[in-house]
Structures are given as structure tokens and as C-alpha cells.
Amino acid sequence: MSWKGLTKSVTRAPQTIKQRFSIGEITKDPIYIDAERRFDELEKETKRLHDESKKYFEAVNSMLTHQIEFSRAVAEIYKPISGRMSDPDSFLDEGNTEGIRACDEYEIIVKELQETLKPELEMIESRVIKPADELLEIIKAVRKIAAKRDHKQLDYDRHRAGLKKLQDKKEKTLKDEKAMYKAENDVEQATQDFNYFNDLLKDELPKLFRLEREFIKPLFQSFYYMQLNVFYTLHERMQRMDIGYFDLTLDIEAAYEKKRGDVQAQVEAISLVKFKTTGGKRPGAQSKYGSKALEAKSEAASTRKYTLSEETPPPPYSPGPAQNALSPALSSTSWSSAAKAKGAPPPPKPKPSRLSGVPATETVTALYDYEAQAEGDLSFLAGDVIEIITRTPNDNEWWIGKVRGKQGQFPGNYVKLHS
């Protein structure tokens, strides 16, 4: 805003406040007020048409582009992982050749759709979006004239109020007479300026409204039929899509079950899925305990079973180089003499890196003797009451507890929760 414009805004500020709160005498032209209302509606409709048509144009283009990118992404998933397919003598097909071929076919169909819809989308841009842009430019110019008209009305009402105040003064001085003469000239000039812009808009706006019926409404109709044409083209082409890899006669869930086949049964037969753990690999965890635990859980993968005797303690653990930081190292002889002749399941491997918390007052009773085998383990005897610090809902995982002032990790299947 220029200095001149700022000065005028400050001068008009009092009258603007009066007009906003209907204080004093405000000029009102019913014909112009009705024309201004219709002009506001015209501006809103034009903006809506412009925005909606542009949004639709971009949405269709984005959808088709996204479908091509999606098809390429799925094809990447279907490709082999190990690179065995690069070996011409390989007899094992590790990739999904049929799926990749189907993705390529789908991409060709979408590209054909892009070419088919390109003229329709260009027509939306040329026959709807651009004309709406041009009309918005005209509306912007009219809006500037309307703003000038409002400013001239403020000046007109302001000068009239000033003149009336001087005229109503009973005893006028020479200074008042000079001020009233100037005020009369200001009112006359403000009246001419206001009437010029007010009459101009009252004369020109009805012409614009008549053109609205010949311009805006047909644009809305054209846009509607263009949308229908795009929709029917998409629907018809997708209905004719014949890619054998996809069964379009089934619903989504049934098609998924058909493609999955017996994969779930094969996965469940793998012993590793029965060991659920939340942590990473425990340092030095490749011990006899780990191998025995896998053997105990592997019923489908191997006919060999590992069964612990009721009379024998857990198998020995091969300790790593590090000692337990939470409790002193205990001799195998002292623990062996104190242990009861009672079997124990092997501890689960690996330990989780994070465990879910439970109330600190929870306690468990040790069912078997356990000797610390690695740094951070907790040693205890059968029958010890252990205070739980942290545990998981699954007893085939590692918990954290405290007994005799020592804290550490221990296998959850070595203890029994207090009910």
C-alpha cells in the first residue's frame, strides 16, 4: 500500500467503524445491494467450478500414474531374492514369473487408458478450467471497482456528516463559515465520485449476470458430461480387462484365500514360528540350551523329540568369557549338591531386548535350580521366592527378577506365578 493509500485508509477509519456498527446516517442503495449479492454468488460459483474441475483433472492423471507405479512395485516384490534365476542351468524358480507378467500386462492396459483419456482430460482443461480462469480475472477487475465504490461511499457519508455537524451549529464563527464552505465543496465532489462508481456497477453488473446464464451454467453442464465420459471409459476398460493371473469373479477375501493356498499350513509346520520372542539374539546364545529348546519345540520338522527326565537337572551351559555383573560366579559343585533331583525345561533363546512391565509386588516360586550362565543372569534354587521386576505374558521368554538382593534375567519357564 502506498503512502497516499495509507493516509486515505486512516482518514476513512472512523466512518468505516460507524458503517460496520450502523452508527449515524449510512447511504444504502437497494438496487446495488441486490446486485452485489448476486455478484458474490457468481464469484463463489466460478471459483468452485474452477477448483473442482482442476481437482478432477489432476485426480484422474494422478490415479493412472499411481496405478503404473503400483504395478511396478508389485513386480519388484515378485522378483527372485537370491539371484538364482540368473543361472541358466537353475531348475528352481524362486520368483513369481506369472505375477511379473501380469503386472506388465496391467501396466500396458493403464498406459492405453492414459492415451484414451488424454483428449478428454485436455478438453476439461481447455473448455472448463481456462474459461473459468478468464472469468475469474474479469471478476477480479470488477471487485476492484466495487472496492473503489465502497471507498467513495465512505467519503460521501463522512463529508455529509461533517457538513451536517457544521450546519446544525447555532452560533457560527467566521472559521465555521469557512469550514462549512469547504465541507460543501467536499460533499459535492464526493457525491459525484460516489454516483459515478455506483451507477457504473448498477449498469454493468446486470449485463454480467445475463452472460452468466450463457457462460457459467453451460460450463457446469459440460464438466458434468466430461466426468461421465471419463468414468464410463474407465469402467468399460477395466471390465474388459482379461489377465489370467487375476480372478475378477471372486471377491477380495476369496481371491486372497485362493492365492494363498496351503502356504499358512507350511509356515505353521516350521518349528521356528512356535518360538515367539521380542528381542534380539542373546550374546553367546548358541549353546546347548538353545539347540535343545529348538529340538523340544520341533515336532513337525523332525521325529526326534527331546524330553527332560523328572530326575535330572537342566543340561549344562557353556559360559562365555564374561562373568555375571549382577551376582558373583557360583561353582558348579555347590549348585549341583544343592539342586533337587527334578527336571527342568531349557530356557528360551534368544532373550528379548525389551520386556513389558508388571507391578513390582508380583512374585514367583522357582520350580527348578538355575545357575547364572552369562553376564546379567540371576541364580536361584528350587523353592526360592523371586520378586518380579519385569516379565512378558509368555513364560517361554526371559524375565527379570530379584532374589537375596541380586537382580538379573532368568527363564520364565523355570518358575511358577503366584495366583
Automatic annotation (TrEMBL):
SMART domains: BAR, SH3. Residues 17-254 form the BAR domain. Residues 300-357 are annotated as: Disordered. GO terms for molecular function: lipid binding. Residues 325-343 have a biased composition (Low complexity). Residues 359-419 form the SH3 domain. One of its GO terms (biological process) is actin cortical patch localization. The keyword Magnesium does not apply. Pfam families: BAR, SH3_1. GO terms for cellular component: actin cortical patch; mating projection tip; medial cortex; Rvs161p-Rvs167p complex. Keywords: Coiled coil, Phosphoprotein, SH3 domain. This is Reduced viability upon starvation protein. It comes from Massariosphaeria phaeospora.
